[in-house]
Specification:
It contains 16 helices and 3 strands. The protein has a 3-stranded antiparallel sheet, with helices on one face. The two termini are 36 Å apart. The protein is mainly α.
């Protein structure tokens, strides 16, 4: 292992950085993704088309992006954090103007060769922007009211745009990830208490502004059997599939709920249910164990980092990944209302896969430059 205290980010050679890159971590991501490839192959009844092959190509491309991002000087990522956030904000705004609808929501931009979901990009951009902003503040300055206006806008503006699409799941992820960075930066407890009270007071207003299908999701969460052939159909079929898998599952490509088309959205939001039906409790627990290793390593990178920007960025990536896994797995088990949150590295989706691999590239950049000391500067937007 190299002693990176000898290096600054610029003085490190590419060969030094490649030696520091944790190839075992990339292998772990490949193993998790392979479980997704297998499920997508099964969904298509033993065919790599239309999902598995595309997802494999995306992972390979994402792995290349991860390595390139990891080798770039962490100080450069800090310098361009605000511009990247601004670009992501423009893309999210463009969805409302020229975006197209899919599955009842207007969340995508058609760029010809690809269909882009800007809210996935914003999940990473918001972490970069908040880490950059709080890096420039001392612990005492973080809790001053005037210093909270900018970071609140960094979170609130994209959340409002995403809610309008509507994409409540992503809005929740953006809000929670942002809140964790506020906490990690040292924001006083009183602000979280006041924020919690404000949310409680706003519940009647929020409820009144929810779409009918969103209200139905809450009612269905509380009582799935109130409409078993309508709003409750998805979650009831998911529970049936989970239970029918037993300890060791029905066998690869032998899941009846999935292959007889009782299970909805089995290539995206409900792919964990399909995995548990075919590979059983053991298969589901194995996947969650792999996720746990990713989380433990990610948090350890944050702890090891000597600069505030890298520490907050690594923590943000870790927390965002955790809530991806938690919300999706809890949703398909009926522990949370159904929202559109994919299972990371496993669910089918191009923008989600590439943006997550980009985020892991940033995590690895933090690891490679963990001993780099970055001076605290001003928070000018450019």
């Amino acid at each position: 292992m190299l002693d990176l205290r000898r290096f600054t980010g610029r003085e490190m050679r590419i060969s030094d950085k490649l030696m520091e890159f944790n190839w075992g971590f990339l292998l772990l991501l490949a193993v998790i993704s392979s479980m997704g490839f297998a499920m997508l192959y099964s969904v298509a009844d033993g065919s790599f088309s239309p999902w598995a092959l595309k997802q494999m190509i995306r992972f390979v491309l994402g792995a290349g992006i991860m390595v390139v991002v990891a080798l770039i000087d962490l100080r450069l990522w800090m310098r361009i954090s605000y511009p990247l956030y601004a670009i992501a904000l423009v893309l999210v705004t463009a969805v409302d103007i020229v975006g197209f609808k899919g599955m009842g929501a207007q969340r995508w931009l058609n760029l010809g060769i690809i269909q882009l979901q800007p809210s996935e990009i914003m999940k990473v951009a918001i972490l970069l922007a908040l880490a950059r902003y709080f890096h420039g503040l001392t612990l005492e300055e973080v809790s001053r009211v005037k210093n909270l206006i900018v970071p609140l806008l960094i979170v609130v503006v994209p959340v409002g745009l995403v809610v309008k699409q509507p994409d409540l799941g992503t809005a929740i992820l953006l809000t929670v990830s942002g809140g964790v960075l506020f906490f990690a930066a040292g924001l006083a407890w009183r602000y979280f208490i006041l924020g919690g009270l404000a949310v409680l007071a706003a519940i009647p207003i929020i409820w009144d502004r929810l779409h009918d299908y969103q209200r139905n999701r809450v009612f269905t969460f509380l009582d799935p059997e109130r409409d078993p052939l309508g709003a409750g159909y998805h979650i009831l079929q998911s529970k049936i599939a989970l239970g029918s898998g037993g300890v060791f599952g029905k066998g690869f490509m032998a899941g009846t709920q999935a292959h007889l088309n009782f299970l909805p959205e089995k290539q995206t939001d409900f792919i964990f249910t399909m995995l548990c039906e075919e590979l059983g409790f053991v298969g589901g627990l194995t996947l969650l164990a792999f996720y746990s290793v990713v989380l433990i390593y990610s948090f350890s990178v944050a702890v090891q980092c000597r600069n505030q920007f890298g520490r907050l960025l690594a923590l943000g990536v870790s927390v965002s990944f955790f809530f991806y896994v938690f919300i999706n797995s809890a949703m398909v088990m009926g522990l949370l209302p159904v929202v559109g949150v994919p299972l990371p590295l496993v669910s089918y989706g191009g923008t989600a896969m590439l943006s997550l691999m980009f985020a892991f590239g940033l995590l690895m950049s933090v690891y490679i430059h963990r001993n780099l000391e970055i001076a605290r500067g001003n928070n000018a937007f450019w």
